UniProtKB/TrEMBL annotation:
Keywords (A to Z) from UniProt: Membrane, Transmembrane, Transmembrane helix
Record-linked Pfam families: GGDEF (PF00990)
PANTHER family: DIGUANYLATE CYCLASE DGCM-RELATED, REGULATORY COMPONENTS OF SENSORY TRANSDUCTION SYSTEM
Ranges where the GGDEF domain occurs: 337-469
Transmembrane segments: 12-32, 38-56, 68-86, 92-112, 121-140, 152-173, 185-203, 215-237, 249-269
Signal sequence segment: none
UniProt GO MF annotations: diguanylate cyclase activity
Name used for this protein in its record: Diguanylate cyclase (GGDEF)-like protein
Stored Gene3D superfamilies: 3.30.70.270
Keyword Membrane: yes
UniProt keyword Secreted present: no
């Protein structure tokens, strides 16, 4: 296995070679003829292929699926650049479209795998990206296509390509913002896709050469694969959306009205509205809007469940809290069978906090909570009602059942608790109160009575220890 030093050296050599080739290709493109441009494009695509293959090998990329798609896409575009040298009669469109689709699939895979906690933000960014395509299409590309005599079919291809590319550009931009400088590979891929979009716009509107932009796209893909951050390209980012800021919500709303607004502009001048944009734009955006709406609905439902859980449970132990326990006990006051209340107060807990700190004390409380749930019955309700005080409400329990439960609790809580290489030990005093139907009118009264029983038992235990010592 290659050492870290050898990997860095190989990466630097490959990057230097790419920089050198890039300089030569740019010079040839700027100074050469139209025929030289074909040779430059072919060399650039082959260089990008070699750079991606080298980057995968040098940096030991763990998830190669996106880059395999990139290799497929670059291979198809290399075929496109080769065909003028081989046969002028072979159509290039199928290879070009297939190559773009492979590269777009790779981009989508990268975005989706990198942002599991920010997919809502990514969808919003994609919608805004699609919206930016509307004015570019209506005021730049469409007039050029109409002037050039391009039919409806050709216009559909260009518009669909623009909508998809700008949508992915928006998503990649969101990924770059959440990744920061730690993911230079993402920035380089964003630059490569930007060059492709700009090259298509320049070629469609002017009919002239956009070779420099396409060359930049190829070279940036190669640079992305050779950068060390390529190894973590698909690692999920740790940050995620915590809400929907007002600015982002405003952009989202504005994006939704841009397409119909721009598509209806020709009608202001007595012309027919742009049917292609008014049809294909919503077809691209509506599925994303529906997915986003579903996410927001699910997020709201989850937030409500989380709030309900937090309102009824103790954060530290996960047991129900005093509020939820009293609700259960109030609902059970009309029961016709006796119930047992076990009031548990930990002994020797404070010395653990004083000696080992609150982290040790928290672990003791969590362990006590787990053990109480394990030894009590499924229908019993166990709660943490104070610092080191726990209470179990056990319905349908007679005196024998209550005594058995107390013994099980005492045995479980006296067991040692391992923590960070030391053994922690606490005791417990359990006060057992049997509640006959109608004997107590409120949960507060019932808990107060159980508390009194617990303190009486604690007093008796202390007296017994004093006698034996």
């Amino acid at each position: 296995m290659a050492s870290a030093g050898n990997v860095r050296t190989a990466g630097r050599v490959a990057s230097a070679a790419l920089a050198a080739v890039s300089g030569v290709l740019i010079a040839v493109l700027l100074l050469g003829s139209a025929a030289a441009e074909h040779a430059v494009m072919l060399t650039a695509s082959l260089t990008a292929l070699a750079a991606v293959a080298t980057g995968l090998r040098v940096h030991q990329v763990p998830d190669r699926r996106p880059w395999l798609l990139v290799l497929v896409g670059l291979g198809l575009l290399t075929v496109v650049n080769t065909l003028p040298w081989v046969s002028a009669g072979v159509p290039v469109a199928p290879f070009q479209i297939s190559g773009y689709l492979a590269l777009l699939a790779a981009s989508l895979l990268i975005v989706w795998r990198r942002t599991p906690r920010d997919r809502g933000g990514v969808i919003d960014a994609a919608i805004v990206g699609i919206a930016t395509a509307a004015p570019v299409w209506e005021f730049v590309l469409r007039p050029a296509l109409v002037t050039g005599g391009v039919g409806a079919g050709g216009q559909v291809v260009v518009l669909v390509q623009l909508l998809v590319l700008t949508g992915i550009l928006g998503a990649l931009l969101r990924v770059t913002r959440t990744s920061g400088r730690r993911a230079m590979t993402v920035w380089l891929l964003f630059g490569a896709l930007s060059c492709a979009v700009a090259g298509d716009v320049v070629f469609t509107t002017t009919g002239g050469s956009s070779g420099l932009l396409y060359l930049g796209g190829y070279l940036l893909v190669g640079a992305a694969a050779l950068h060390p951050t390529v190894a973590t390209l698909t690692h999920p980012v740790t940050t995620g959306e915590t809400g929907v800021p007002k600015l982002r919500l405003g952009l989202f709303g504005f994006a939704l009205i841009v397409v119909p607004l721009v598509g209806g502009v020709p009608q202001l001048y007595g012309e027919a509205p742009d049917g292609l944009l008014l049809t294909l734009g919503p077809l691209a955006m509506v599925p994303l809007v529906l997915v986003r709406a579903g996410q927001l609905i699910a997020q709201r439902a989850q937030d409500q469940r989380d709030l309900a859980y937090q309102a009824n449970h103790d954060d530290l132990t996960g047991l129900v809290n005093r509020r939820r326990l009293f609700t259960v006990m109030a609902q059970a006051t009309a029961a016709v069978t006796p119930a047992a209340v076990l009031y548990c107060d930990l002994d020797d807990f404070k010395p653990i906090n004083d000696r080992y700190g609150h982290e040790a004390g928290d672990e003791v409380l969590r362990c006590v909570g787990r053990r109480l749930v394990e030894v009590l019955r499924d229908g019993d309700v166990t709660a943490r009602i104070g610092g080191d005080e726990f209470l179990a409400y056990c319905p349908d329990a007679d005196e024998a059942t209550a005594s058995g439960l107390r013994r099980r609790v005492e045995e479980a809580l006296h067991a040692p608790i391992p923590w960070n290489g030391v053994t922690l030990q606490v005791g417990v005093t359990v006060g057992v109160l049997l509640s006959e139907p109608g004997a107590y009118t409120s949960p507060d009264e019932l808990v107060a009575a159980a508390d009194a029983v617990m303190y009486e038992r604690k007093r008796i235990q202390k007296a017994e220890r004093a006698v034996h010592t």
